[in-house]
Amino acid sequence: MEGYLGIDVGSVSTNLVIINRENRIIASVYTRTMGRPIEAVQRGMVELNQQLDCEIEIKGAGTTGSARYLTAAMVGADVVKNEITAHAVAAINVIPEVKTVIEIGGQDSKIILLQNKVVVDFAMNTVCAAGTGSFLDHQSARLGVPIEKFGELALKAKNGVQIAGRCSVFAESDMIHKQQMGYCLEEIVYGLCEALVRNYLNNLSKGKEILSPVVFQGGVAANAGMKRAFEEALNVEIIIPPFFNVMGAIGAAILAKEQTEFQPATNFRGFSVSDLEYKTSSFVCAGCSNTCEVVKIQVENETLARWGGRCGKWEVASEKSLNVTCKPAN
Amino acid sequence: MKIGITSTVPVEVVYAAGHIPVDLNNILIQSEDIEKKLLSASMYGFPETCCSWIKGIFSVARERADIEAIIAVVGGDCSNTNALMEVLQVENKKLIPFSYPHESLYEDLKIEIEKLIKNLGTNRDEVYRIKKRLDKIRKKVQQIDKLTYEENKVTSFENHYWQVSCSDFLGNPDEFEFQVDKFIEEVKTRKPELNKFRLGYLGVPPFVQNIYDEIERIGGRIVFNEIQRQFAMPSFEEDIVVQYQKYTYPYSIFDRIEDIQEQIEVRNIKGLIHYTQTFCHRAIQDIVIKKQLNLPILRIEGNDNYLVDSKLRTQLEAFIDMLKT
Q1: Which residues constitute the domain of residue A254?
Q2: Residues in chain B where the model's pLDDT stays below 70
Q3: Which pLDDT band, with edges at 50, 70 and 90, does A312 fall under?
Q4: Between residues 291 and 310 of chain A, which touch chain B (CB distance below 8 Å)?
Q5: How far apart are CA A318 and CA A316, in angstroms?
Q6: A287 and A157: one domain?
């Protein structure tokens, strides 16, 4: 059976999916990056392989997320794509007429506006990471509420209490203060959801018209309280797609599948990448006054790729061919 | 005497008075210790929410004993400069305020320029003699600009660098002209690069030093650097007052938009990147820019990050992807 692999390696989570020719999910993994992207990908590949109940031939591989270049060099990707495009592609696959994508991940949030399946505008959060998944994780730990139960608890509140949304430090102080004043936990948790939605809209929707259908994806979409808070703030239905937490990886897999029309064979090294020992290092090039910091990834003393230099002289052939085959299929 | 400038000023007056202008912004951005300079300003007392350009040029001015006086642009650039000027006075620098009038009225601007001439101890004839000299160099820099958008032979960074350097001509117009001539000769031997996405860059020059390299890496090319081109005084007016009246940066956003619109058509630009500093009032102008210009515009913010980070990289890549569809 043919499959297409998508990997999204972010600062908080690493997600992997395999899709078939019809873009249906055959296997998916959501795991924590924990500061070690290479290990997270290797771990994810093992888990993914374990889910397969038949032999799969990976015909194309795509990577996205903040560690997309590192991952691409590791696994041999055919497509390397930024998260905005990947998320948009995945959303269109589920809801072809989607006009707005709200994505809140571990440390980033994005808004993507589409018309007729084409991205026409987008924005990412600026200044700080207040209102993203990491903050919710931290609060759920502090309150002793499992993150999976957070949304359920928020839905029980009639109203939310006012919580500062501008900064996660102030939001936490506010929550503590409200607890000390005796407000019930459900209202505090829902108040936090409302604050995060306000933060998101203040930061990202500047001058943008949010039109339906609105799709909410990313790990934070698991939180039913956030869905409710968005619906109340925007007065529109919020759609949460199946596999909402691995949409970036799905997008990367779809793009890899599209790339195969332009490329005779995949660069994918196989599932055995889980067993290899990768080594990354960096050095400063003294070739000119730019003093670029160049990152190198090696396996068994073979350099897979280097990047970071301005002039490109440190790029190895494998990375150069990676760049050529990774041009978007347009 | 070396005289620091906080933004583009009638530099003809500085050279006419026999002084050497030093654009403090350009010194800052080329420093090897930018982080240290910003930290130093913060520890001195500059607030967290203060623009990094202001903090940085404070440190540059303070550290450079050879810069004895500073022309501070207190109108038409940044209102923080007013307070910056006062702090530098405490640091025993001689401060010379210069203000572009709010509505670019001829008489008001003429008064400001004449005040500057008197302050620096020169005269109108000498100023015009220098203007003639500098205009000759500006015409050559304009050629570099044309080689960018007409012949596709100049990179985004090079287009930025030669134009932004016209604020002070690197302190030595003769040497600057020599370098410009050498550069143009070399560019003429290059093959054109026709496969890059034609983009415009709007707003103040970037704090993010390698943003131009990143744009080139992902297949874009800035064929129009809006404000840097204005620093190079593209209007070539005989009257110096009219020249600085037509310099769009200090005045209304609508003057800038008129200029941008014209250049979009001349240069066949497909998308615009609008850069602002975090906490800057110019971010508000993005609202008007987006309403008035009918082209995809990516707004990006810089703060104290002098290198492209992963978030900025993602946004630039996504913007190019968006333009490709």
Answers
A1: 2-89+248-275
A2: none
A3: low
A4: 310
A5: 5
A6: no
C-alpha to C-alpha distances, A200 to A130, A134, A163, B163, nearest whole angstrom:
9, 14, 14, 38
Cβ atoms within 10 Å of B278's Cβ, excluding its own: 16
A259 inside domain = yes
Instruction: Mark whether A109 and A195 lie in a shared domain.
Output: yes
Q: For the segment A9-38, what is each residue's pLDDT rounded down to a tens digit?
A: 998 899 999 999 999 999 999 999 988 899
H/E run at residue A118: strand A118-124
Chain B nearest-CA distance from A233, in A, is: 22
Closest CB to B301: pick one of A119, A126, A330: A126
3-state helix, strand, coil in chain B (%, to 5): 55, 15, 30
Q: List the helix and strand counts (H, then E) for chain B.
A: 15, 8
Interface test with B, best of A12, A259, A310 (most B CBs within 10 A): A310
Q: Cis before residue A241, ω within 30 degrees of 0?
A: no
pLDDT at residue A199 in the model: 85
Which tens digits make up the pLDDT trace of B280-293? 999 999 999 999 99
Residue A282 touches chain B, beta carbons under 8 Å:
no
Helices (H), chain A: 37-51, 68-75, 83-94, 133-143, 147-155, 168-181, 185-204, 224-234, 247-259, 317-325
Whether B290 has its CB under 8 Å from any CB of chain A: the answer is: yes
Query: Which residue of chain A comes nearest to B312, CA vs CA?
Result: A124
Chain A residues closer than 8 Å to B299 by CB = 123
pLDDT for the residue A306 = 81
User: Does B270 touch chain A if contact means CB atoms closer than 8 Å?
Assistant: no
Mutate to test the interface with A, among B278, B310, B312, B324 (most CBs of A within 10 A): B310
In three-state form (DSSP H/G/I as H, E/B as E, the rest C), the secondary structure along B113-127 is HHHHHHHHCCCHHHH
Inside any domain, residue A327: no
Task: Please tell me the predicted confidence (pLDDT) of residue A264.
Answer: 81
**To which H or E segment does residue B215 belong?**
helix B211-217
Name, in order, each residue with C-beta under 8 angstroms of A190's C-beta and a sequence gap of 6 or more.
A154, A155, A157, A159, A160, A161, A225, A228, A229
Greatest distance between any 2 Cα atoms in chain B: 58
* Interface probe with B: pick from A81, A85, A203, A330, most Cβ of B within 10 Å: A85
Q: For residue A260, give the DSSP letter.
A: G
Other C-beta atoms closer than 10 Å to the C-beta of A136 total 26
B261 close contact with A: CB closer than 8 A: no
Q: Which residues of A touch B276 (CB under 8 A)?
A: none
CB A119 to CB B318 under 8 A?
yes
d(CA A68, CA A71): 5
Backbone angles phi, psi at A121, to 5 degrees: -165, 155
What domains, with CATH codes, occur in chain B?
Answer: 2-124 (3.40.50.11890), 136-324 (3.40.50.11900)
Q: Token digits for B64?
A: 């450079």
Q: Confirm whether pTM is higher than 0.90.
A: no
Q: Do B313 and A85 touch (CB under 8 A)?
A: no
